[in-house]
Amino acid sequence: MCGIVGIADAGGVSFSLYSALYALQHRGQESAGIATFDGAVLHKHKGQGLVSEVFDESLLASLEGSVGVGHVRYPTTGEKIPENIQPFNFRFRGKNIAVTHNGNLTNTADLKETFEKRGQIFCTTTDTEVIGNLIADELRISGGMEDAVLHCMRILKGSYSVVVMLDDVIWAFRDPLGIRPLCVGKLPNGHIVCSESVAVDALNGTFIRDVRPGELVRIDATGITFRQIAVADHPAHCVFEYIYFARADSVVDGRLVYDVRRHIGQALSENETICADLVSPVPDSGIAHAIGYSEASKIPYREGLIKNRYMGRTFIMPTQEARENAVRIKLNPVKGHVLDKSVVLVDDSIVRGTTSRRIIGLMREAGAAEVHMRIGSPALKAPCYLGVDMPTRKELIASDKSNEEVRKSIGASSLRHVSIEALISAIGMDKNDLCVGCLTGVYPLAIGCEQCSRRRVELIGGTYQSNLGVFKEVSEARTSTK
Amino acid sequence: MCGIVGIADAGGVSFSLYSALYALQHRGQESAGIATFDGAVLHKHKGQGLVSEVFDESLLASLEGSVGVGHVRYPTTGEKIPENIQPFNFRFRGKNIAVTHNGNLTNTADLKETFEKRGQIFCTTTDTEVIGNLIADELRISGGMEDAVLHCMRILKGSYSVVVMLDDVIWAFRDPLGIRPLCVGKLPNGHIVCSESVAVDALNGTFIRDVRPGELVRIDATGITFRQIAVADHPAHCVFEYIYFARADSVVDGRLVYDVRRHIGQALSENETICADLVSPVPDSGIAHAIGYSEASKIPYREGLIKNRYMGRTFIMPTQEARENAVRIKLNPVKGHVLDKSVVLVDDSIVRGTTSRRIIGLMREAGAAEVHMRIGSPALKAPCYLGVDMPTRKELIASDKSNEEVRKSIGASSLRHVSIEALISAIGMDKNDLCVGCLTGVYPLAIGCEQCSRRRVELIGGTYQSNLGVFKEVSEARTSTK
Amino acid sequence: MCGIVGIADAGGVSFSLYSALYALQHRGQESAGIATFDGAVLHKHKGQGLVSEVFDESLLASLEGSVGVGHVRYPTTGEKIPENIQPFNFRFRGKNIAVTHNGNLTNTADLKETFEKRGQIFCTTTDTEVIGNLIADELRISGGMEDAVLHCMRILKGSYSVVVMLDDVIWAFRDPLGIRPLCVGKLPNGHIVCSESVAVDALNGTFIRDVRPGELVRIDATGITFRQIAVADHPAHCVFEYIYFARADSVVDGRLVYDVRRHIGQALSENETICADLVSPVPDSGIAHAIGYSEASKIPYREGLIKNRYMGRTFIMPTQEARENAVRIKLNPVKGHVLDKSVVLVDDSIVRGTTSRRIIGLMREAGAAEVHMRIGSPALKAPCYLGVDMPTRKELIASDKSNEEVRKSIGASSLRHVSIEALISAIGMDKNDLCVGCLTGVYPLAIGCEQCSRRRVELIGGTYQSNLGVFKEVSEARTSTK
Amino acid sequence: MCGIVGIADAGGVSFSLYSALYALQHRGQESAGIATFDGAVLHKHKGQGLVSEVFDESLLASLEGSVGVGHVRYPTTGEKIPENIQPFNFRFRGKNIAVTHNGNLTNTADLKETFEKRGQIFCTTTDTEVIGNLIADELRISGGMEDAVLHCMRILKGSYSVVVMLDDVIWAFRDPLGIRPLCVGKLPNGHIVCSESVAVDALNGTFIRDVRPGELVRIDATGITFRQIAVADHPAHCVFEYIYFARADSVVDGRLVYDVRRHIGQALSENETICADLVSPVPDSGIAHAIGYSEASKIPYREGLIKNRYMGRTFIMPTQEARENAVRIKLNPVKGHVLDKSVVLVDDSIVRGTTSRRIIGLMREAGAAEVHMRIGSPALKAPCYLGVDMPTRKELIASDKSNEEVRKSIGASSLRHVSIEALISAIGMDKNDLCVGCLTGVYPLAIGCEQCSRRRVELIGGTYQSNLGVFKEVSEARTSTK
């Protein structure tokens, strides 16, 4: 997962991009980068670590220009090599280009092979370089980003919210299914396009609206324009953004994430028969769900676990055993709250079950009489191929275990997940407009042998006429041109 | 303010000290240090920054030994010079000594002058070096730490919880008024003495008890022993530890801090006449108070401000104006929660008023109809000389302003502080056993021209016979020997 | 200018590559990099700075594999961007490739344009990526490095000594004119190909021979093989390697550099009419020439300037004036040697004249009666387009000034350069086998509007049959196929 | 060994101190530090590493003030702890003091014990803190630096050149025997006192003269004054400064070091019976000696070993064997010069013999027929207690071996050292004015059980009247008061 942002602002963009990346830091902590264009030269700085670690004042001051893009990257299991840090930038026939991407392509290998057949080499192992090549490939023929994005939407499979700087213009587009979020805002002296609305808030801007699935946005000194490039019969917004990934204070595709989570918590409390003394979140991911649960159930909200606010990303211990025990440095159970009490413990999801098992263990060691685990997502049954870093099916504890088996495995007194229906109701969209692949194993586009509830996508726009030959075999699998 | 810890553990102490300092990181973020003794050599490492920044695995592995002390230091306005980073260590007549100190002496200048009169120089600008000198001064005559601590308790004025490593023994003592916290715990293979019980929890230890005011603790491979060195008629535990400083999950002098804060919140909700839609904390310091308020008032608890969990200690902005606006990178108001709503906003205290003013501004810009500020401490009227880094009287907004003047200044719809009585009741101690200097301007010991409600302290122990001459004039001001 | 190396050694290569780069450090101090291949994975590390700054023990230990390549890069005026640090590595159709290059192509822009015409993008601004693309372009068709190198020799214009790692084989080739040096050596357990023989010495290896112009070398676990790919009627070895660039203890194309310089110094002393007290080198570049001068002239060799051995690459001064005066921190005249003396001062070359002027100034301030400047190269009249970082014609002081004008400008008592004939005689080769472009303005291949004494190059090898179409227009300018 | 410097210059001193330390870097590479005083505040920065690594421009710009002192420290085997980095600075009774010291005290332990008896603690393990304490001890009584230095000269045993900043005045003094060098110079806007004259040269200053043994210098904005504090019947200048330690271009106690070494080389060539082809130095320490040898013997001077100019202080190798072989990365024999030749190899000294053995091995592997080792010092027979970091007597190869045994051990064809008489003659002083302890085992002051050729020292100055009592037993051992 990643966070992306593009800004056009006559007063300079580097400090604004930095602030926006700060607001999007939860979407990626492995690396960060910014590229700006000052009318003549592309400036950039990228590095491994948090935004606060990668940039300093003199670096930001040196990133001159009135347009720019930024990126934060998630520590996926893949290759943490310096070349992969985004923005991915290059010069092509006199133009300076920087590409940032949030999402995951499912046909990267095919596309790379097609390019390599004509002798092309790839300097990184990212999807983003493939997108950069596709754009360059089309720019050389038609010269325009509209056509290049049409080309992308014809060719690319998977999820992709993309922000591109092409000399002094910012272009942004969202895949036709709108899987990953993307929105635009008005700044005092310009415009911003970014993964989540919190980045607009951070700059004291005004939220305009979400970018529509299949839509292309153009931002520069003169303002903002929109153009629909492709239309799907149904979008496939990722439910996991609401459950866990997006910040609680973001508004994603029209819904305040905090309220979705609070409503999930309320739904979880319905039909409860247990009689608990307190509701406690697993911090920080379960807080909004737990508040909702407490509100609906009238069971007092009280923190049973206190999180250490100073945990660096590395906590050093000499042995594996010591590292595992270190959970109590990170999360300290409040004995005075849980001793001899029946606790409803609320978390957003269970992935491998390891963390839940440790936390419930902590609560029991602290004297909790009962630990009732309530989960703000349905059971995770299948992997995500569309941008959320989730383990394989085999590692997902619920993929082949019943609820009772999971309960025993994690040691809870009782275990309940929210139902898919209640989740969808809390989000407030039509079920067909969401991607629930990780919950059902049915994905909104064809991925290998997985089941698929395919959307129909139509491309819009008459100027498109270019290098179909090269990629014909790839593109037909998924799109049709009006 | 600082956090201190000492550990004796036959299995090695450096990783345990590191974990304990992690748990005490909230008590000081400027610098950190560890010193250990391996039977022959004192090992140490100190540096500026967070515990996670100062230490790495190879450093910790090199800090060998079965006893050690650690320290985290608060960014006071004073001198951030490398020499001042603790532990303060030195060799004296063949012994290796490392001293860590939490608190503030009020007679440092006098003591330094006395020492300088006999030709002594000071390498640091800390109180801790003075304590080190006093200990050495006495060790040279009587040779024992009991006498040295008796000497300290005779001479030192102010607050001091101290942990000393003297070769292979850990000694710890707390000033006769018990102003700063200190407690001891049993570890699987040893013992720990530390500022707060969360450090015992972090090591999966068992809390034994608080160190008594005026008490000396001795820890080594053979176990733990206690000895009372001085007794005061009343202690003077700092109320600000409960209001703000200590971690919510710590038990300080017998009280779970979280519950004290929750009870303060409950007390704040009594006799309210306003009709609010939600109770929101200022994160993170107002959370427990706000939960208590919500619980007692039945007004729903909902976060109106979301804190960015990734704020480094420096946030870079090119201008002062930009830096001030940066509060919205750190705290984002949740428009969906506060728009057109009447909000009870709960914080732990108001110091200069600047932060409250900005936060209330954020809430109003986000559309809050009313912002009722509720404060978990009585108005701060006077500075702290005893270890809390607080501004001068002039800078304290409540020192010369009425409640209504402060309300106007910060822009709240209404403003209420908890009363001193309610605070004391929430803590659950006798008023005479607490230091409320910052609330009343009356301190538990003589400090310059400030008012004083002096405690009577008696020194215990017959072996004491040493260098009274040198410090007689200093010591008589405060103690009497049986 | 750069230094390159490739090693195959069953016992591991990273520490050997590191030692070899140390020995080649004089060829480039801006950045350094190593790539190795362990049979499955390509490992690499690159960074800005000296070899000693870029690598540490754990990094080297992590660079596993029995083949590898390394590179040190010269601080050219061009783009110091991280992407440009070599080796340039990529994966192509399942193969791991790393390319290192010493030299300068003169048709990079043309080649890039050709590639961009078919939609290709470039991640770096180096010649090396172009070479990587050419190799990939050919590998995809014929699959073999022999053909790929034949393709390169057909297409590339300029100077290029190249070492490529293609999975577990090291391939190295030298342009048909042999402009930059390249040689091979036998190691205790493998083979090395490197820019200069000092790298063979550093590994206690045995020098085998120089790589022939137009020759391809293949090194792997099984041994070393050679294949002639192209043959020129005359090579064009760079004279500046002998004058300045190569290390004095290297043997380049059969000549010990130290002896070439000593013979230049001897030649300089012929027909002298001045009567000097001592001969002093400008350290370190003039030492061997000065020793030769002293030996032939019988004037005592004595250091009149002592170089500070601790000068970092940056010497900080607050103002430009202070920086210019800082020459005396770097070079200190020995007053006791030069006071009232007539000094013969020997340096390797004069570029802009700035340094000579400053040094002569230092000597005069120290009291030298006469400073007779003797230069180990003929006057530099024209720029180098083939890999030596030299200023433009305009900046070369001798390009438009007579010897007497230069003498006045630098303030010497007298000034003499070695003649081209004496230089060539000291090198001991045929004049037609050397590149003397910088001395005469006549280059061994066509470069823009410059004069050219073109060599005839014939390509060897029957299997070549591939993508001539694409690059036909480029290649015909320079080569013919038998 | 260390390098020290003090500067008073109305235009600011930090950049000048930095340049001076650069010039003195050969005297110490472990750490560096600067302290300045701006009339109100003492600024300082210290760190481990070379001057170029410890300071950057913003640090230097922040070291404000028109007086300051600096220090570079040698990597002795002792304690490399941050506290030990000089200048040693402290505040004492309102005054800011910074002390730098070159030399070694032989009664540190006694002095520390005396201070500890009165309860004093030491923060560092340096001699310098003892000197700081002595100065403070006296300042408190008499208030003046003249008396404090008189006190030091009465009490201190050993070698000590000291530069002290006391608020806005620089004080410097040299022990009564003048063991370590110290000199003063005039700068364009001020004055400098420093270990060697090269630091004066580096600042384009004018050398004034050496500080006399037992003399005190005072430098401030108003100028420079001198005062003789103690007078010895004979000084004891260290011969090793001439042989190895000082820079060749320094003038130490009236002698140009380069010329001393050249004369030593000339003396070495007398009465030679061997017939060699070339004279080669071991770079860099043997260069001046070898030039002298060549000049007198008429055997050509030619470098048989080329030193790698880029060796960092650490060269990484995975095994001890690999590290030992790494000598050939540092020093490369020039096969073309030495093959089948008889070589006179000149070095400054032989300590353990290890390096000589390796270098002679390199020469033989490179094909040298004969290697005649000529050494610019007499055989080292005894350790140095007075500031040169030399191994114990046991480790000195010549302490218990005959010349023939040493020759065999290092593998030379023949071995000759310069005689003590020739060394003294090359220096040009009276034998009684030099310290030749390391050559004869007879030292100029009493050190443990070593033999001693004691000097008589008289203290000058009537105002002295202070705390004789405290240190009487210590001081009587060495000085008498007129």
Which labels suit this protein?
homotetramer; 482 residues; alpha+beta; Glutamine Phosphoribosylpyrophosphate, subunit 1, domain 1; Rossmann fold; 2 domains; seven-stranded antiparallel beta sheet; six-stranded antiparallel beta sheet; 18 helices; disordered C terminus
Description of the structure:
The structure is a homotetramer of 482-residue chains. Chain A has 18 helices and 28 strands. By secondary structure, the first copy, chain A, is of the alpha+beta class. Chain A folds into two domains: 3-236, Glutamine Phosphoribosylpyrophosphate, subunit 1, domain 1; 258-427, Rossmann fold. In chain A, the strands form eight sheets. Chain A has a seven-stranded antiparallel beta sheet. In chain A, strands 5-6-7-8-12-13 form a six-stranded antiparallel beta sheet, covered by helices on one side. Chain A has a four-stranded parallel beta sheet with strand order 18-21-22-23, sandwiched between helices. In chain A, strand 7 (158-166) and strand 8 form a beta hairpin. In chain A, helix 5 (127-142) crosses helix 6, helix 9 packs across helix 10 and helix 9 packs antiparallel against helix 16. The two termini of chain A are 33 Å apart. In chain A, 58% of the residues are buried. Chains A and B meet through helix 1, helix 2, helix 3, helix 7 and helix 9 of A and helix 1, helix 2, helix 3, helix 7 and helix 9 of B.
